[in-house]
Every structure is written in C-alpha cells, then in structure tokens.
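Good day; I would like, with your permission, to put a structural problem before you. What I wish to show you is a protein chain and, alongside it, a tokenised description of its three-dimensional fold. Here, with my thanks, is the record as I have it:
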Amino acid sequence: MALAVLPLLAVLLSVLAVRSELDEAARATLVSLLSNQWPLLVLVGLVASGLAAALAWKFGERYGPAALHMADDVELVLGGQHGRAIQPSGAPEVVELASRVNRLIVAFDAARRDAELRAEQARATVERERNQLAALVTEMPQGVLACNREGRVLSLIHI
C-alpha cells in the first residue's frame, strides 16, 4: 500500500521543487529528473498498487472467514449460550485468538455461576429470615405496625 503512493509522492516532490527555496540549479535538476522519470514512477505505482491488492486479497482469504466465524460464535455466547466454546480454525494467529477467547469464556461462565450461587444463597437467607420473622410475629400477643422513615405505614398485623 505504501508503494502505491509513489506517483503522488512524485507529484508532491515536483510541487515542492518548484515552490521550495532550492537554488535554481538544484530546482531545475529535480524538475528535469522527475519530468523524465514520470512514466517509470507511474509504472512502479501501478505495480505497487497491484501488489497491495494481491496482499489484501490473500490476507482476506487467510483471516477473513475464520475471523467472521469466530465473531458469530462470540455473538452466540453473548446471546446466552453459556459454556459454548469457539471452534478454532484458520490461520495459527486466529486459532490462538480463539483459544484465548475460550479461556475468557470459561472465566466468564465461572464468574456467572458464582454470582448465581451467591444470589441463590441470598434468596435462601432472606426466605429463612422472613419465616423466622413470621414465626416471631405470630407468637407476639400484640399487633405489629411497620413504618418507613417518613412515618408511612407499610404493614399492619392485627392479632
């Protein structure tokens, strides 16, 4: 891709040569050199553009399908298919990336399971405390009035 800008570079150098503070002899030498070699510079630019296009095509063939497949698998995991591993395929770099993403998925699933376990334990604790409170209230000979900080009645239990 960098070689594809050679014609543009030649034009830029020509403009600089004409507009720069070079002395007349140096400016004339540079302008004549660039004006005599422009077909070669254009040819080099075209060859470089073709080479850049071929490299981009090869890069796309090597990495494109595997990366898109991996992106689809990651989207499924994000959508809720927990425990799903990404199938590594393609270039070695993409396989290594898939392996690392799989390790990340395992860590994420472990953290999710831990959070679910803690939430279930908290629900069980709240349920146990609610039952204890209900048992305590039923044993009381008086009624119970529950209010919030503003004094609004939240619950009233008559005995």
